[in-house]
């Protein structure tokens, strides 16, 4: 059985695919969020369609959060066996608030949403052997930034939030057990600032807050009942995305003033984290989609490779991929640039999206591929010499 949503509703949905593949099973977990609304005084419920016809969700079987919000959404979790068409698709639907973020571990889906009361509600949904079961719910003060603000580790769920009280902000880390009961907390981190990026790595968490400078916090989570700050580093600018380079080094990507900044942090001594190198893109200003979309970044530490799309302005616009060499010994070095635009003057003096703007990069063996809406370019991974290009219609 194949599960899809009604065409009209599909235009209004957000989807997340999660798959687990083994020798004995191949299950795709599909998460669909559909706004809850009335159509001619009738509540429009989620529907599934298959070769057997249409099935509307039963209201009595929909889980709901008993909280007030300014809008609501139905979130449906479905398990689809992609190796057995005859197997029945299993699914569960939840009526939640509209603002949500998700984190998926091997056996759990965590769905969160922020309430008007300033709290984040959390639902843990067990996924195993195509079973979908709501097992726990909980809440913490404040709101989360994105999926990297959450993590499951050693049967604990950790998350970082920013909370506001009387117009003042504070940042917190909470540790919950599998019943989503709070067992540990670290509150009032960098009061007056807000979280710009988070990364959980095993027994530690790294958090960047920002107002005028970039405090980089190393937090110990080895004892889930007593999280604590181990070290703090303050540097100009901020990092809006943190990416593990290895067990003791982290790459931070953000901005310093109007320039894109790439930092390399050494956290081998967590009580004294250091920025061992950084690279700032030159020009009057620069930007990158990596600041809001981590999938635009390509990193491979074994190849000392970092590739990211950059747009810059020096009285005219340039856009393309910056290719860096990153090593612990030598830091961050620009190897070269790849653009899909034949004539950069065609981009003009003002930024607006272009079909030849590089969005993604990847490598296969010794070939680096950069991809825009209109072109795929192939360059030698070592020399960056152009090998070929394909125009897309």
Question: Please, how many domains?
Answer: 2
Q: How far apart, in Å, are the first and last alpha carbons?
A: 35 Å
| Beta-strand segment tally | 34
Strand order of the largest sheet: 1-2-8-9-7
Q: Whole-number average pLDDT?
A: 87
Q: Please report which band the strand proportion falls in: under 5%, 5-15%, 15-25%, 25-35%, 35-45% or over 45%.
A: over 45%
Shape assignment:
globular
CATH architecture of the largest domain: 7 Propeller
Named CATH topology of the largest domain: Methylamine Dehydrogenase, Chain H
Figure out the total of helices: 1
At a glance:
With 393 residues, this protein is mainly beta.
Structure report:
With 393 residues, the chain is mainly β. It has two domains: 7-283, Methylamine Dehydrogenase, Chain H (7 Propeller), CATH 2.130.10; 284-393, no CATH class. Helix content is 1%, strand content 60%. The strands form nine sheets. The protein has a five-stranded mixed sheet with strand order 1-2-8-9-7, with no helix packed on it.
Helix and strand layout, with pairings?
Elements: H1 7-10, E1 14-21, E2 26-35, E3 38-39, E4 42-43, E5 47-50, E6 53-56, E7 63-64, E8 72-81, E9 90-97, E10 100-104, E11 108-114, E12 119-128, E13 131-141, E14 150-153, E15 156-165, E16 168-176, E17 182-189, E18 194-201, E19 204-210, E20 213-220, E21 228-236, E22 238-246, E23 249-256, E24 259-266, E25 274-280, E26 285-287, E27 298-300, E28 305-313, E29 317-327, E30 331-338, E31 360-364, E32 367-371, E33 375-380, E34 386-391
Parallel strand pairs: 7-9
Antiparallel strand pairs: 1-2, 2-8, 3-4, 5-6, 8-9, 10-11, 11-12, 12-13, 14-15, 15-16, 16-17, 18-19, 19-20, 20-21, 22-23, 23-24, 24-25, 26-28, 27-28, 28-29, 29-30, 31-32, 32-33, 33-34
